[in-house]
């Protein structure tokens, strides 16, 4: 025997596709609204038809009671089936298509009725309110069944109540009108449902295109993966809407930009302030791998527009890479300096060897003395005027590199800088960038020269670097401090256009300034002012001794 195949159980439930689910939900909503609207319309319709029937009955009764002939016949004749009151009441009933028109006297005796045999009998319902002078509208059960009726008093010429008139409208006619109105209502409801179904189908198709026919579970999974990816990657992501406002910031972007999630809903300039970083994010600066500086970080930004009119910007932290690049530059500078020294040393050793071979011993001694004296004089000159070891070592190395490149690097006679710097490394960065920039500017020019002046005025450090290069045009004197702006070809390992920007940022961070102007005799002159760059000088020994002596005397 062959094995019995497993029984598959049918599982009923919503379809997985978003298109089908949205369509079913929209159809259910449209059908529910149609049924609810029809029910809400039918609920008061019966009451409205009842009210119309009662008012019609009351109007017929009022018209009948206003005929003076009925009052005269009521007084002058007896209640008979062939009497004038019966004839007139039947004429009115047939003309108005009422169910009955009953005229009664003050005792409630009928003078007219649809059934002539009931004339002369007392009415089945209480006529007290009508005989008391009040008009009555009601739906009640009488001898002719359920009806909408109206009762009014019957007055004589003197205004006395001599009887009452009761008019009834068959309730079956009211119900027939209600039933007759239902098909039309259902037709309108069906039309509204068809329009709603069409609108639901169109909306579902649009949702299908926008969601690419994914299931809700797939969309939820994609959103969860998106959140995990955005907040897990080590790259800043900033999304902007079509109005230029930030709509998404991942954790890395908040860290790199130094802002929190409250920036969502604001423009980059509102969240970051004016500057190149905000301009790059807003799209005012275009290009790829744009360099910008935010605080102490060097960032590489790329911005790509999206199909809805917004944009997505990515940010990469290039601070470490930039530091490595600068260290590489420093290493290359040191290698160049060592190469220059080696080359110069080899030439001098060859010269010394030649003098010794020629047995010109006195000339050899004099030559060695001059070489050692020149080097000692240069180093002593710098260290005498600049007492900060890092700065002095930097300028000694830069002087060697400058000599190799055919540039004369001079330290101004006005240079005086004590060993009291608060941030010597920051000043080393500033001086190194300005000297490198000056060496690049004068390279290849005749009589190339770079002059450095460093002096202290109280606790303020003033730095000036002059060169004999082409200078900086007036219209570019602010642009040179902008991140990414340069007139030079970028090296392979990193971009250019950050050195002068960092100089200004370091200066402004210490409350100072960095500007460029024209040097005397042509060329550029960069001036950096750093307030509070030096610590308070230590008290003089004599003054300290005097203070200590005074303190001891007071203690005695």
UniProtKB/TrEMBL annotation:
<dbReference type="GO" id="GO:0005886">
    <property type="term" value="C:plasma membrane"/>
</dbReference>
<keyword id="KW-0808">Transferase</keyword>
<dbReference type="InterPro" id="IPR016120">
    <property type="entry name" value="Sig_transdc_His_kin_SpoOB"/>
</dbReference>
<dbReference type="GO" id="GO:0005524">
    <property type="term" value="F:ATP binding"/>
</dbReference>
<keyword id="KW-0902">Two-component regulatory system</keyword>
<dbReference type="InterPro" id="IPR004358">
    <property type="entry name" value="Sig_transdc_His_kin-like_C"/>
</dbReference>
<feature type="transmembrane region" description="Helical">
    <location>
        <begin position="20"/>
        <end position="46"/>
    </location>
</feature>
<keyword id="KW-0418">Kinase</keyword>
<dbReference type="InterPro" id="IPR005467">
    <property type="entry name" value="His_kinase_dom"/>
</dbReference>
<dbReference type="InterPro" id="IPR013767">
    <property type="entry name" value="PAS_fold"/>
</dbReference>
<keyword id="KW-0597">Phosphoprotein</keyword>
<dbReference type="InterPro" id="IPR003594">
    <property type="entry name" value="HATPase_dom"/>
</dbReference>
<dbReference type="Pfam" id="PF00989">
    <property type="entry name" value="PAS"/>
</dbReference>
<dbReference type="InterPro" id="IPR036890">
    <property type="entry name" value="HATPase_C_sf"/>
</dbReference>
<dbReference type="InterPro" id="IPR000014">
    <property type="entry name" value="PAS"/>
</dbReference>
<dbReference type="Pfam" id="PF02518">
    <property type="entry name" value="HATPase_c"/>
</dbReference>
<protein>
    <recommendedName>
        <fullName>histidine kinase</fullName>
        <ecNumber>2.7.13.3</ecNumber>
    </recommendedName>
</protein>
<dbReference type="Pfam" id="PF17203">
    <property type="entry name" value="sCache_3_2"/>
</dbReference>
<feature type="region of interest" description="Disordered">
    <location>
        <begin position="536"/>
        <end position="556"/>
    </location>
</feature>
<keyword id="KW-1003">Cell membrane</keyword>
<dbReference type="GO" id="GO:0000155">
    <property type="term" value="F:phosphorelay sensor kinase activity"/>
</dbReference>
<keyword id="KW-0547">Nucleotide-binding</keyword>
<dbReference type="Pfam" id="PF14689">
    <property type="entry name" value="SPOB_a"/>
</dbReference>
<dbReference type="InterPro" id="IPR029151">
    <property type="entry name" value="Sensor-like_sf"/>
</dbReference>
<feature type="transmembrane region" description="Helical">
    <location>
        <begin position="185"/>
        <end position="203"/>
    </location>
</feature>
<dbReference type="InterPro" id="IPR033463">
    <property type="entry name" value="sCache_3"/>
</dbReference>
<dbReference type="InterPro" id="IPR035965">
    <property type="entry name" value="PAS-like_dom_sf"/>
</dbReference>
<keyword id="KW-1133">Transmembrane helix</keyword>
<dbReference type="GO" id="GO:0006355">
    <property type="term" value="P:regulation of DNA-templated transcription"/>
</dbReference>
<keyword id="KW-0067">ATP-binding</keyword>
<keyword id="KW-0472">Membrane</keyword>
<feature type="domain" description="Histidine kinase">
    <location>
        <begin position="423"/>
        <end position="534"/>
    </location>
</feature>
<keyword id="KW-0812">Transmembrane</keyword>
<dbReference type="InterPro" id="IPR039506">
    <property type="entry name" value="SPOB_a"/>
</dbReference>
């Amino acid at each position: 025997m062959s094995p019995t195949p497993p029984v598959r159980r049918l599982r009923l439930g919503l379809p997985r596709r978003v298109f089908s689910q949205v369509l079913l939900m929209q159809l259910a909503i449209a059908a529910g609204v149609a049924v609810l609207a029809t029910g809400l319309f039918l609920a008061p319709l019966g009451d409205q038809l009842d009210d119309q029937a009662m008012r019609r009955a009351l109007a017929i009764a009022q018209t009948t009671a206003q005929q003076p002939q009925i009052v005269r016949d009521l007084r002058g004749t007896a209640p008979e089936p062939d009497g004038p009151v019966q004839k007139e009441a039947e004429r009115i009933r047939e003309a108005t298509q009422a169910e009955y028109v009953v005229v009664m006297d003050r005792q409630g005796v009928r003078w007219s009725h649809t059934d002539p045999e009931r004339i002369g009998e007392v009415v089945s319902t209480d006529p007290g309110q009508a005989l008391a002078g009040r008009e009555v509208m009601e739906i009640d059960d009488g001898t002719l069944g359920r009806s909408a009726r109206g009762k009014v008093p019957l007055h004589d010429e003197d205004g006395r109540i001599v009887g009452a008139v009761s008019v009834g409208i068959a309730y079956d006619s009211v119900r027939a009108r209600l039933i007759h109105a239902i098909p039309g209502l259902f037709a309108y409801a069906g039309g509204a449902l068809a329009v709603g179904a069409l609108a639901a189908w169109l909306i579902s198709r649009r949702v299908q295109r926008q969601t690419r026919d994914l299931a809700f579970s797939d969309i939820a999974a994609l959103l969860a993966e998106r959140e995990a990816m955005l907040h897990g990657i080590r790259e800043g992501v900033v999304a902007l809407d079509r109005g230029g406002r930030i709509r998404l910031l991942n954790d890395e972007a908040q860290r790199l930009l130094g802002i929190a999630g409250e920036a969502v809903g604001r423009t980059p300039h509102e969240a970051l302030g004016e500057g190149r970083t905000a301009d790059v994010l807003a799209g005012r600066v275009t290009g790829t791998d744009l360099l910008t500086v935010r605080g102490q970080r060097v960032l590489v930004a790329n911005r790509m527009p999206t199909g809805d009119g917004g944009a997505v910007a990515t940010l990469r932290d290039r601070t470490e890479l930039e530091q490595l690049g600068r260290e590489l530059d420093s290493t290359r500078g040191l290698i160049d300096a060592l190469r220059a020294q080696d080359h110069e040393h080899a030439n001098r050793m060859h010269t010394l060897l030649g003098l010794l071979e020629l047995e010109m011993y006195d000339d050899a001694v004099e030559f060695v003395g001059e070489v050692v004296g020149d080097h000692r004089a240069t180093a002593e000159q710098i260290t005498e005027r600049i007492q900060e070891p890092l700065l002095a070592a930097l300028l000694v190395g830069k002087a060697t590199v400058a000599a190799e490149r055919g540039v004369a690097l001079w330290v101004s006679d006005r240079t005086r800088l004590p060993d009291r710097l608060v941030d010597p490394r920051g000043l080393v960065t500033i001086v190194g960038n300005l000297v490198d920039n000056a060496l690049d500017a004068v390279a290849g020019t005749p009589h190339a020269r770079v002059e450095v002046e460093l002096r202290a005025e109280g606790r303020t450090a003033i730095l000036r670097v002059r060169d004999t290069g082409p200078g900086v045009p007036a219209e570019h004197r602010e642009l040179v401090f902008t991140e990414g702006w340069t007139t030079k070809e970028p090296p392979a390992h990193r971009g250019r256009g950050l050195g002068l920007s960092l100089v200004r940022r370091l200066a402004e961070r210490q409350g100072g300034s960095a500007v460029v102007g024209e040097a005397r005799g042509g060329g550029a002159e960069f001036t950096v002012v750093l307030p509070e760059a030096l610590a308070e000088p230590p008290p003089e020994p004599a003054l300290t001794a005097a203070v200590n002596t005074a303190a001891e005397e007071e203690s005695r």
